[in-house]
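ok so heres the complex, three chains, lmk if somethin looks off
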Amino acid sequence: MTALPYVDGNMLDGPLGEVFAVDLSTATGRCAHCGTASPVAGLRVYSHAPGLVARCPTCVEVMLRLVRAPDRAWLDLRGATFLRFPMPPERTLIR
Amino acid sequence: MGIVTPGFEGRPRAGAPNLPPGQYLTPDFPVLSAGPTPKVPRETWEFVISTETGMEYRWSWDEMMALPQEAPTVDIHCVTRWSKLGTTWQGVSLDTLLDGIDTVADYALAHSYGGYSSNLPLGDLRDGRAWLVHTYDGGDLPAEHGGPARLLVPHLYFWKSAKWVRGIRLMSEDSPGFWETAGYHDYGDPWREQRYQGD
Amino acid sequence: MRWLPARLVERRVETPTAQTLVLEVPGWPAHLPGQHVDIRLTAPDGYQAARSYSLAAPADGDRIELTVQRVPDGEVSPFLIETYREGDPVEVRGPVGGWFIWRPAQTDPVLLVAGGSGVVPLMAMVRARRAAGSRAPFRLIYSVRTPTDVFYADELRRRVRDDAGLDVAFVYTRAAPEGWQGEPHRLNLADVNTHGWPPDLEPLVYVCGPTGFVETVSDLLVGLGHPARRVRTERFGPTG
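and the predicted structre for the whole thing:
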């Protein structure tokens, strides 16, 4: 079995949990390159690198990058046209 | 700072005078990658230097191998904090490749098979400080370390030494590369700990 | 998500190179089987190292369990196994992961496929199933190098006897125990066919192990006709 150098998008939850108030692991992201929408948990994450690089499982282009310095973080989402999150239903006003 | 766990030291960090601040020594050669390893056959490999006026200078594998070869022994420093001392390489000096190229550019962007890129001042590729290397430790440079050929600029953090390099764009303005657009330093001097933008 | 202080309260030897650590984390929020936790160690000079570990057991108040495989030349796992003492603090952040989870309210048949220490989050599911009195049929295929590398060996034997509706099949890749049918081999199509569920039962499948293992197994499963969206994966790399 060859050692492949990437892991699942699941591992983004901890690092991104520092940045986002919503749970990204249940989010869906659309690749800006090929247009495929995939669960963030299913992205291919290259973590043996200066930052985290999450790639589209279909076309392998970069969708998300996160660089964490001790006192700052950079989140680059230019490879994703959207992130969609499940949210609790909005309360409607009854008039 | 977090809560100290008694007995935890982490990897040895201080010590050798030739170790930049915040680095630890490793006897290994860790493989770092931001994406899949591109497979580049030597038959189709080429190296291109393009100038700010649009001139292009190309080398095939055989043409590059026919140039004068050098064998630098250098220390390398990765921004993820490992350093490896006394690594041995073979390749062509960038002085040789840049010789005779007409340019007044101040900046360079190394770009790679697979889409990686990294920027640095053109001056840092000159004066015997940078090589296009194809041999590591006496053998062909393995693909996971950037083979068939990578850039070697050991006086800057190692992410500047682009793996699978396919060319260098010479430019009048600085243009940040893959990691530099995501927070890493445009210059990256390990002795001044220029890890992130603003360091 | 904040880093919470935690202390080691118990340690259990699983194999010559793996141990289960029980940590007490005041204020720990509940978690679901399959989730993981980040552990952070700080040295006296402020140097820090963090690693992610799967939670091995269902929520139990302020207590969490993780099973740590010692990675040769690793920075964190050898410390946790050899040096870390009962009562000493670490910091934890979690629970993390909302995808690779099994909810005890789910009733679909479940296939769990573990490669090596990938069994840890799957064991949390097996334990949670019994704790919740779930009747969801569970099958676990556990690929492991040799019999001495099996995590939770006694407990798995006991659960196969006592937990109705749980089946466990081992696949040995290097050396098999006496009485095991066949030669040691990498998990293959026949194993998945024999010990898994047919796709028309629409099982939920959880695969956890090294990236190459997960890649192979999920290809096999999808090839057998399991829809890709029913195959949940968790790959891990060799950070120590």
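quick notes: Chain A has one helix and eight strands. thats all i got rn
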